[in-house]
Amino acid sequence: MWLETQRLVLREFQPADWQPLAPILVNPQVMKFSLTGILSASQTQEKIESFITSYKKFGFGKWAVILKESNELIGYCGIAVEQIDNKDETEIGYRLEPNFWGKGLATEAASAAIQYGFEQLKFPYILGIVERANTASVRVLEKLGMRYERKTIFHNVEMDVYRLNCKN
Ligand SMILES: CC(C)(COP(=O)(O)OP(=O)(O)OC[C@H]1O[C@@H](n2cnc3c(N)ncnc32)[C@H](O)[C@@H]1OP(=O)(O)O)[C@@H](O)C(=O)NCCC(=O)NCCS
Question: How many Å lie between the centroid of ligand 1 and the Cα of residue 110?
Fold first, then answer.
């Protein structure tokens, strides 16, 4: 899996990527809206292992986001299988290093991931689940063309479910 956008490459994580990912996932600003809170280096290694397990099991998962101009790993973005309201769903997710926020990069990464999900993986729809207070993430979902669908309780947290249907 290799996706290229104007400014980014999305590729599968490798175990060694924990080195650039750990400083991102230990940052409270990045993990403010997360089910886990900040991650230690070993928890980041486990997270990457879980991404790799998803590639093996489903053929997709959360991918490393690389800034082309510097070859720097600036976060992750991709599609995961999550149980939402007792159903396995495909969910878009993203998390980027704060120095790179506000430049449209999450939207650029997520739209490439969604296009891949619809065209290559043939998903009929993709969901986004977000806490209402996470305004930047809600805005990204809206910019992707997602529509608010319903509320849910996800791992004991009230979340909003957004949905984008494949147009084909
Ligand atoms: C959510 C996140 C990935 C967005 O990344 P990004 O690259 O800055 O996103 P974009 O630049 O594509 O778009 C962000 C949008 O939110 C808006 N925004 C940013 N902060 C905001 C805030 N505090 N309140 C309202 N809007 C905000 C921006 O103005 C922009 O909208 P615009 O293009 O209409 O101006 C990034 O903030 C992040 O990593 N957050 C922490 C992790 C996280 O919460 N992930 C989502 C879990 S559901």
Answer: 12
| Measured distance CA(56)–CA(76) in Å, rounded | 18
**Residue ranges making up the domain that contains 121:** 2-165
Q: Is the entire prediction scored with pTM above 0.85?
A: yes
Domain count, the chain: 1
Q: How far is CA 29 from CA 99, 108, 120, 128, in A?
A: 11, 21, 34, 20
CATH code of the domain in which 49 resides? 3.40.630.30
Q: Residue 89's pLDDT band (boundaries 50, 70, 90)? A: very high
Residues with CB under 6 A from ligand 1: 30, 33, 94-96, 101-107, 130, 134-137, 139-140
Distance from residue 57's CA to the centre of ligand 1 (Å): 30
